[in-house]
Structure formats: structure tokens, C-alpha cells
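Section 5.1 Outputs to date
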Amino acid sequence: MEREMKKGVLDIKNSSKFVVIMLLQEKSAVLGRQVDTSQGSVVDTDPINCSAIPPTLTSWVREPCPCYCGTGTTTEYRYCVWYEQDDNADGGCVEKRTRDDTNDNLCDNASLTVITQCTNGSCLINLVSDQTADVSSADSDSVFLYEAFTSGGQICNIGKLDHTDKKDRRLGTIDSYPLSMPCDACMRSSTETFEKLRVTIQGTDAWQASWIMVEVNNNKRTYYNTQFLDENGSLFYDPYYK
């Protein structure tokens, strides 16, 4: 019985020593130091060579798409991670990382950033209305093509707007063209509207508009240019020109 008790005490001591060793090893991993556990002893040795730890690449991280609707671009990035010797007395390792692609990196100069296409579904053009000026010769029987520009310079091609069942663009009249037209230009908020419009005339019968209104994602904005749109030409219309 006494031998069994002594054996139990020894087992407890050995178990305790093992726990101490494991705790020291865990601590050494944090500090970047080596622990000598040979012969049952625990001795803190010289600092490890931090530069010998192979550099690694983290997983890719994708930034959110900047478009509320439409198609744009976003950035995906990852870090190159390496270790350098700590200048403090404990001699541990300090983690360093970079996602800078403008300089060489220790991860075999791997690419750390890429630009990718992203989308949150199409925007929707709901309505286009325009009023023909009430001045001599402002009306027109020509064909008109409409384009809408976002603040980022992307274009929605609205195309030809024409009433097939009646004459449109008569003096002083308002013509409305209900639409449900998808647009893949990037719009960055739920309230964003187009920055400007471009109207191109196909024909020789010039036209003058008082204003043009476009509704996109249920947001309306009115655009102006009081010049005559002459034969086979184009004019830009914006919210500020009056």
C-alpha cells in the first residue's frame, strides 16, 4: 500500500512538472523563445531566430461593393506576414505585415491587392418626361436618343423615346415615357440620380426642350439646356443649366 501511495505521489509530481513545462512552452511561443525540457529540467535558452520563421500569406479579404445598384469595382486584399527580432530584453519575435503592392515583399513578391468587378443588381429607370419649348420652330418630328451619365462617368443607354400612337414634341407640350429599364451603371446610394443627360437627334428637324426629367430608383431629377438641338447633333442637359 505504501509503495502504491509513493507511486501516486510521484505520478502527481511528474504530472505537475509536465503541466509546468507545457505552460512554459506556451509562454515561450508567445514570447518567441525556446525552452529546453531535456532531462526533466526547464531552462530558458537563447532567443530563436525570428527571420527563420517562413513568411505567410493571409486569406483574401473582399471590400464591400461601393454600388447600391449597378456594376462597379472593389478591392480584394491579403497580407504578407513575417517576423522580426524584438529589441526588448525578452528577445521575442514581433509580427510584421503589409498589403502594399508598390514595393517588394517577403512572400515571394506575391500579389497582395486585386481589383475585381462587383454588382448589387441593376438600377431601374422608371420614367423620362420632357417639355418642348413654346417658341417658334421648337417642335420636331426627328428621332431622339437618350443617354444618362452617373457622377462616376458610367452611362445608361436609354435609347430611342417616341410615341408610336401620336405625335410628340409639339410646342409647349409635355411627353412622358414610362419605363422599367434596367441600368448597370454604378449608383452609390438609394437616392442618387444621374449627373447629366445627352440627347442625340437623328434627322434634320431641330428641337428645343424646356426641360427633361428622369426618374431612376424612384428618384426624380430635372435637366436643362435651352439651346436648339440641331440636325444630327447632340446636346448635354444638366440640373444647373437654365
